[in-house]
Amino acid sequence: xxxxxxxxxxxxxxxxxxxxxxxxxxxxxxxxxxxxxxxxxxxxxxxxxxxxxxxxxxxxxxxxxxxxxxxxxxxxxxxxxxxxxxxxxxxxxxxxxxxxxxxxxxxxxxxxxxxxxxxxxxxxxxxxxxxxxxxxxxxxxxxxxxxxxxxxxxxxxxxxxxxxxxxxxxxxxxxxxxxxxxxxxxxxxxxxxxxxxxxxxxxxxxxxxxxxxxxxxxxxxxxxxxxxxxxxxxxxxxxxxxxxxxxxxxxxxxxxxxxxxxxxxxxxxxxxxxxxxxxxxxxxxxxxxxxxxxxxxxxxxxxxxxxxxxxxxxxxxxxxxxxxxxxxxxxxxxxxxxxxxxxxxxxx
Length: 348
Description:
- By secondary structure, the chain is α+β, with helices and mostly antiparallel strands.
- It contains 7 helices and 16 strands.
- The chain is globular, with a radius of gyration of 25 Å.
- The chain starts with a strand and ends in a 5-residue tail after the last helix.
């Protein structure tokens, strides 16, 4: 199968269900169009250990009639483990509006099988995880990366080589992912995948290959990026060159220790013993910040970097006070009765 990256993160609107790979460069055959659509991301930043845990739910639109692949850049070789889909629903519940009355092994070989290499490309790991076949690569040049993918039956365009070039220059790793095929070729499934890596600062890989033309061809005009950011305090995002990011903070509040531990369990972060030790040490409070970004299909000046926010105040969604529809029935009935009393004929 031959595929070429077109965008950053996803799940086929045509046939595939929402995917749970981390934010990435989505890929399809060179003759097909594919762009990222809506996407929800969980970023858990351990400031003390300089470790980022990254999980996402996303959708994309494509005219591809074959499988879509993903490439995820990270500053170094990541740890890949299955996470929990339930964490997304729990975070949606936590940040929901409250009433006012409330306060690759690309080419897909089996795990453990060695992958062919070309000069300047190193295969760091290959495994089957969370329903994905995954291979982690490191390349000395973007051309070497493209050559390796092409030799493994994946054709990559010049725009994708350009997308990869800044990451290669920094010595980043690339995780290639593909939904694994079961014994029955018709059966395809994947769970949420957590990718964890060391970083100087938390980040979201916002850059993507040129996607404006593909978005126009597919009739896609808007997409929503939602990021749940969890750390020791409130954070804010900006592009790596210091330019303002279009993401807006819509929720920011303390995440109590019980909720934090439950999310750690759902996301499979840390061992059961580490989570138990955390509870015994006292329920440490963390901070949850939610961002919404109507991510434009235009070239970005770089990736989004997060840093402690100057404004550490709380921001809670508040639902407008609503009136029970029964009151309209009662009031309407009362008004009708009074009108009838006024106009009914008086008895002699």
